[in-house]
Design brief:
2 domains; Outer membrane efflux proteins (OEP); four-stranded antiparallel beta sheet; 453 residues; 9% strand
Length: 453
C-alpha cells in the first residue's frame, strides 16, 4: 500500500507538471531581446504572421531609403537576415522539447486472442510506464536548462550578426573611398602622361621621361580596376548580411572620425567574465550535464517499468474474465549500467574542462583585441596628424614653386599623387581602427561564430 501511494503521488506530481508545461506566446524571444538589449540599441524581431512580416518589410524599406550608417545597417540585418530568422526557430524546437518533457506518456493497450475449437484465450492489458513518473521532473529540468542554453546561443547569433554587419559596413564604406581616390590618382596620372606625350612630340622632353609617366598611368589604371572590384565585393558582402540587393545600398560617404579618447584596458578585462555569453552558455551546458549524470545514476538498473490492469479469459467464450495486474521491467542481469555512468561522468568532466579553457581563452582574446584596438588607434592618429598634413604641406610648397616656374608640372603631379596616396593610407588605418573597435566589443561578448548567416 505504501508503494502504491508513492506511485499515486508521483502520478499526481507528473500531472501537475504536465499541466504547467505549455508553449509561451513568444517562443522565448523575450529573453533573447532582454539580453541583446544590454549590448545593442537595435531591436530584434521574429515575424511569423503576414501582418508582422509586412511591418518588418516596411521598416526595412524605410531604412533603405535613407543614408545607411553603421547602426542602421545592423538594424536592417537584425530585421531582414534569413539566417538569423532560421536561428530563431531553434527556440521553437527547444521549447517544444520542454513541453514534450512535461507531457505524460500515452498508456499502452495489448491484446492476445486465440481460439481452439470452443476454447478461447483472450488477454487484454492496459499498461502505463510508471518509471516516467520518476524521471519526468528531472527530464523537464534538463530540457528547461537546454532551452535557456538555446536562448544564450541565439543571443550570440544575434550579436555575431551585428558584429559581422558592422565589419562589412566599414569595409564597404572604405572601399567606396578607395575607389574615389583611385579615380583621382588615375586622372592625375592620365593628365601627366598626356602632357609628357605632347612635350616629347614638341621635342621638349625625352622618351625615357614619357615612358616613366606612361608607366605611372598604367599602374594607376590597374589600381583603379582593382579598387572597383574590391568595392563590388565589399558591397556584396554587406548586401548578403542585410539580405537586400547591393544596388539598394546608399552608404555614408566617409568613415566615422577617430574618437578623441579611448578606454583603458582594465574595465574591459573586468567586464569580460561578466558579459561573455559563450561562457554563460557553457556554464548552463555543464549544469545540464550534471543533472543528466544524476539521471543516469537513477536509471542505471531499471530502464523500463510498466504497470497496468489486465484481464484474462481462458476457457469458453461465456466464461468470466480473470482480472489482474501486468508488470514488465528489465532485469539487470548482463548490463548493470556502469558503462552509462562512466560515459556520463566522462562527458561531464569534458564539459568542465572545456568551460575552463573557454574562460582562459576569453581573457586572452580580450587582451589581444585591446592591443590591436590600441595599435590601430595610434597608427590612424599618426596618419591623420602627421603623414597627411606633411604631404599636404609638400604639395602646397611645390604649388608655389610651380607657380614661380621653379619646378616642372610633372613634379607637381607626383606630389599630388603622393598626397592622395597618404589620404588613402589614412582611410586604410581608420578602417582598421573601426574593425578593431568592433572586434574588441565582440570579444567582450563572446567569440564570433564563423560560417553563419
Amino acid at each position: 500500500m505504501k508503494h502504491f501511494k508513492t506511485i499515486l503521488y508521483g502520478l499526481f506530481a507528473s500531472v501537475v507538471l504536465s499541466s504547467c508545461t505549455t508553449f509561451s506566446q513568444d517562443g522565448g524571444l523575450a529573453g533573447v531581446k532582454e539580453t541583446t538589449a544590454r549590448h545593442l540599441k537595435q531591436e530584434v524581431a521574429w515575424p511569423k504572421t503576414e501582418a508582422e512580416k509586412k511591418f518588418v518589410a516596411d521598416r526595412v524599406s524605410t531604412l533603405l531609403n535613407d543614408v545607411i550608417n553603421a547602426d542602421n545597417a545592423v538594424q536592417i540585418a537584425l530585421l531582414n537576415n534569413k539566417g538569423l530568422q532560421a536561428s530563431f526557430y531553434e527556440l521553437g524546437i527547444s521549447e517544444a522539447d520542454v513541453v514534450q518533457a512535461g507531457r505524460l506518456p500515452n498508456p499502452k493497450f495489448g491484446m492476445i486472442y486465440a481460439k481452439n475449437g470452443g476454447e478461447y484465450k483472450i488477454e487484454q492489458v492496459l499498461t502505463f510506464n510508471i518509471f516516467s513518473l520518476i524521471t519526468m521532473p528531472k527530464m523537464l529540468g534538463i530540457e528547461r536548462q537546454n532551452f535557456e542554453k538555446t536562448k544564450q546561443n541565439v543571443v550570440l547569433e544575434v550579436l555575431n550578426l551585428a558584429h559581422k554587419t558592422r565589419q562589412s559596413y566599414f569595409n564597404a564604406v572604405a572601399a567606396n573611398e578607395h575607389f574615389r581616390y583611385s579615380e583621382q590618382v588615375k586622372e592625375s596620372a592620365e593628365a601627366s602622361a598626356e602632357l609628357a606625350r605632347r612635350m616629347v612630340k614638341a621635342g621638349n622632353w625625352n622618351k625615357l621621361e614619357l615612358v616613366r609617366e606612361q608607366s605611372f598611368y598604367a599602374e594607376a589604371v590597374q589600381e583603379h580596376t582593382l579598387a572597383k572590384q574590391q568595392q563590388t565585393s565589399a558591397h556584396e558582402a554587406l548586401a548578403r548580411l542585410l539580405a537586400v540587393p547591393a544596388t539598394q545600398l546608399n552608404l555614408a560617404k566617409r568613415l566615422p572620425d577617430l574618437p578623441k579618447t579611448i578606454t583603458e584596458l582594465q574595465p574591459f578585462e573586468a567586464a569580460a567574465f561578466e558579459q561573455r555569453l559563450d561562457l554563460q552558455a557553457m556554464r548552463l551546458e555543464t549544469a545540464a550535464l550534471a543533472k543528466q549524470l544524476g539521471l543516469t545514476k537513477t536509471t542505471r538498473f531499471i530502464n523500463v517499468l510498466e504497470i497496468g490492469p489486465a484481464r484474462v479469459l481462458e476457457g469458453k467464450r461465456h466464461d468470466p474474465y480473470k482480472n489482474g495486474v501486468d508488470i514488465a521491467f528489465e532485469l539487470p542481469l548482463f548490463d548493470w549500467g556502469g558503462a552509462k555512468v562512466a560515459r556520463a561522468e566522462a562527458i561531464y568532466m569534458q564539459a568542465v574542462n572545456r568551460t575552463a579553457q573557454t574562460a582562459i581563452n576569453a581573457q586572452s582574446e580580450v587582451r589581444e583585441a585591446y592591443s590591436r584596438y590600441l595599435a590601430s588607434y595610434d597608427m590612424a592618429k599618426h596618419y591623420r596628424d602627421e603623414i597627411v598634413p606633411l604631404r599636404k604641406k609638400i604639395l602646397d610648397e611645390n604649388q608655389l614653386r610651380y607657380n614661380g616656374m621653379l619646378i616642372s608640372p610633372f613634379e607637381l603631379f607626383a606630389d599630388a599623387r603622393a598626397q592622395v596616396t597618404s589620404v588613402n593610407g589614412y582611410i586604410v588605418k581608420l578602417n582598421e581602427f573601426w574593425l578593431a573597435e568592433n572586434a574588441l566589443q565582440m570579444a567582450l561578448i563572446g567569440s564570433p561564430v564563423e560560417g553563419k548567416q
